[in-house]
Fold this sequence. Notes:
heterodimer, A: alpha+beta, CATH 3.30.1330, five-stranded mixed beta sheet, B: alpha/beta, fumarase, 2 domains, five-stranded mixed barrel, 31% helix, globular, binds iron/sulfur cluster
Amino acid sequence: MTLNEQVEKMTDIMASFIGYTAIHLPDDVVSKLRELRDAEDDPAAKSIYDMMFENMRLASELGRPSCQDTGLVQFRIDCGSRFPLLEQLQAILVTAVRQATEKTPLRPNAVETFDEINTGDNIGTGAPSISWNIIPAWNGCAISTYLAGGGCSLPGHAAVLMPGEGYEGVVRFVLDRIAEYGQNACPPLLVGVGIANSVDTAAQLSKKALFRSVGSRNPNEKAAKMEQLLEDGINAIGVGPQGMGGKFSVLGVHIENAVRHTATLGVGVSFSCWTHRRGDIVFDKDLSFTTSTHPGFTYEQ
Amino acid sequence: MNNETERCGRKMTKIINEKTVLSTPFTEEDIRSLHTGDVIYITGDIATGRDDVHIRVVKEGMELPVDIHGKALMHAGPIVRSTEENGFEVVAIGPTTSMRMEKLEYDFIKEAGVRLIIGKGGMGEHTAEACREFGAVHCVLPAGNAVVTALCTEEITGVEWLDLGMPEALWSIRVKDLGPLIVTIDTSGKNLFEEKKLKIADQKEKQIEEICKRFESVLLQ
Lengths: 301, 221
Ligand code: SF4
């Protein structure tokens, strides 16, 4: 394959994959939703879960986006320093988003700030957003995609607390947000919490937490315990599907943490809705790929 | 299940397949007989309108280019594609966060004469006030179910203000048995989400205390 052919192939695969994730939820999210539905006692809440499953079925059958708000596309990339298309990757992803917008179709959501104009193709200044990580001496590339809907991005928040506020301050910060805005963000929600030194690091970690597979745990035992406590506590608040009440409020709570400055405690929280459209795809140097989130995804040239 | 249509007390309300279906135009009587928690479906004409439509009508004083008196407004930005016959087709549609429109909704309802607002999540005091005064209700359609909902649409009958972009434009759509719509604010001003929110706030304090108590012992380990 020439370089151009390789670029075209990877662009095409990524465009199809983004479209596929708008239509099919990842396996971990589907099984979590099934678990919540089966354990729910409230008949009204149960019927809302049933509607979700009916929607998933129809979306797959008809090949249509499961939610009309297909969000803004966000990528997290772990790219090997020896991946042959490293230099072209940024351009590949931009074109892939444009193609996916047209073909799937995705809803054009990108509005240039100050100009206040919808760009029409989900491309614009800083869109799609790409968070890079270069892995030395590897020749593959792992890309995670996420469609960030408006409704669940809305309650996101970050602040720097006084260290004296401690973990109690963190717990209050997260639960205040859920109590105030959780009902409107299409629960059950996936909650990402970032704990670090400043607003930017905490906010970034809170979004990174949403890219973890649902139900995974923070490797730090105490942080993992906090995840479980937050999960149980937020569920007990009884937000329920669509915020109308029910046994569960969340798909899970993921915490990502880093050091803090001795004088600060940065905390950020990001949310994703029940339609949590995340995808993981890993390429090798020849552009063969595997997708753990969407094993049903295939690509034909 | 029976397919027969049975008239019940209200003028434009029918019970079909055990579903309560209201047709547009809704009468004030239809709407005033609804209560929070009721589950209904609607058939007829709806218009979509979200942030920018509200801003144009309420803040910029522009005249609404379609008549939605007695009809339904849906807080929604659909995915629409062009058809070969020069028309449009709804690919996916569902409600957006209603609360964003709260500040402008009183004046919008007053101006447009709309009787049923469809959205997601709750709305606040301005909307409840308008519902009381002008005889309107706010309903929640379970969100994120854009394909189920798209299959309730029959035809796009028009589009205005497409310069606002696809999501913000004012789409006129004919729907059949659109629902389930759960009445969340009724014409007495009763507000299901606000009631739920108070319970959530109450529970929140208890849970914060509980989590912190249990985490304290984790930190000591
Ligand atoms: S919050 Fe999620 S499910 Fe709800 S409307 Fe937005 S994208 Fe769709």
